[in-house]
Amino acid sequence: MKFSADLSVCLLPTNRPEMIHRCLESVDEFAGSVSCEIILVVSKSDDWLAEITAGFPETIIYDHNGPLGEIEARNHALRLAGGRYIMLCDARIVFPPQAIINLINFMDENPEIGLVGPQIINQAGEIQPSSGAFPSFGKLIASRSLMNDRRIKPAQSLAAQKVDWVDLSAMLIRRELLAEIGLLDENYAGPLGDLDYCLQADREGWHVCSLPGISLTISGQDKYRTRQKLHLTDIFRFFLKKWFS
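Request: output the structure for the sequence above.
Response:
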């Protein structure tokens, strides 16, 4: 298969165009020897899109021109992606020096790993809940949240760690895995779609890992997505698939 780039960076947009600029600038500045294509999925054409195309003319923009859910938007980007690896991430993410190069090198050196998630920190330097073990059914029903608001402790080791799931805010996908398990399940309205995709990867024999040694920064003051309230239908859907499919 002929690839259009080493890495397809697929961005879920924000209503803050300055954050998109910051993300694109970090990719442009720090990609180094890694060839990148950037895919931005939007639900409507705004004035700031002209600024994006002027400043970053190689950006691939998919204009849905209508309401668009998070998972649906990410699937549109996956269909357009032509890279050896695909990075699903929020446009609020900023890549530091060497992060992109180190992520690609790690995946090249570990062909058994299908999905990997770097550590996510906010602007205050606090670690965000972006990976972990599958929660129990009872815990999700009781809390209606994937993660609580407690501060996350730094990992004891910076080495790669095998986990059950990594967050779609910054998920690196191997092309071969995408070919095997396909797109994200659009029936999910929130972060349990992340867990579902990782569950499918595990069932196909792929490893899912977090990389605390590589940190990306997420800007803005919004509550991190894994701490948002979950839909009950998503909880039941995930566990029905986990237990019975």
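Residues 5-244 form a domain with the Spore Coat Polysaccharide Biosynthesis Protein SpsA; Chain A fold (CATH 3.90.550.10).
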